[in-house]
Amino acid sequence: MAKSYLHFWGVRGSHASPFDSHLQVGGNTSCVEINVNGHILICDAGTGIITLGNKLAAQQNIKEVTVILTHYHWDHICGLPFFEPAFIPGWKINFYGPGESIQEMKQNLDSQMQAPYFPINTENWMANINYIPPSTKKIRVGDMVVKHHCVHHPGITYGYTVDTGKQKIIYVSDNECQFLDKSIKMKMTEFSEEEQTFLKEINRGEYEYELKSIKDADILIHDSQYTPEDYEIKRGWGHSCYVDVVNSSIDAGVKQLYLFHHDPSNDDSAIEEIHEKSINIIQSRNSSLKCFIAREGLEVELN
Ligand SMILES: [Zn+2]
Ligand SMILES: [Zn+2]
Fold first, then answer.
1. Which CATH class is domain 5-301?
2. Which residue from 107, 129, 163, 243 has the least number of CB within 10 angstroms?
3. Of the bound ligands, which one is closest to the alpha carbon of residue 47?
4. pTM to 2 decimals?
5. How far, in Å, is the centroid of ligand 2 from the Cα of 94?
6. What integer best gives the mean pLDDT of the chain?
């Protein structure tokens, strides 16, 4: 039986950052491969998918992959025009992502490959391209069962739960957790007592929803783009402060957390510092949560 693993091909948020100071963590944008017994699920198609595509094109055993997209921001789709298997006859590529219809999904992918922005379009793809209807609630890829939930990020954005039959992996690349909590607390004095009670209720609902969506994950890959200082300036931009992610993960009973979607302005040492401070939070709360930096090239063995 083929080995099962999770491989980080791109871990960066917003834009690729192939700078010397960033390469210990990695410069490519979001792309994670989950390979269970030779069945391949690809989470997002940032620049990380290019190296994955080259590896896939060079082998002969596997000729089908399923690509699930959290949303259509550039950092999550801009590797797709350079994804080698799409240009090879005999390959089958299944796409799934947010949208009202297959046409809308297709349009979202087509439009980044149109003149004057790109020399060829998706008509030049020679693989068998299959769009899974967005109304599908549950996708099966080999033994994996994949479900989505909505997260807090501009536009409609999904997080995904991948049940391998043995482990629950949750992928939330872009999400501003505890958005309402922060916003409401900041302005609380501006509301009447009655309004404050109502807002606290909504706030509690938001946190319960967040905890439910990541509950008991064996592996959680989560947006941890900002420090508390960044977050003061970038509140509402759709990304999380790592402090909130670590606390939510502890509250939700997550076993392993991978800090993901690193800010391009953070070099290797800045991300190491985020990691150290995350571990301090975990220790101060006496939690057994294990916390890692998602690094490009890191492969995690699955059960
Ligand atoms: Zn992103
Ligand atoms: Zn985004």
1. alpha beta
2. 107
3. 1
4. 0.96
5. 21
6. 95
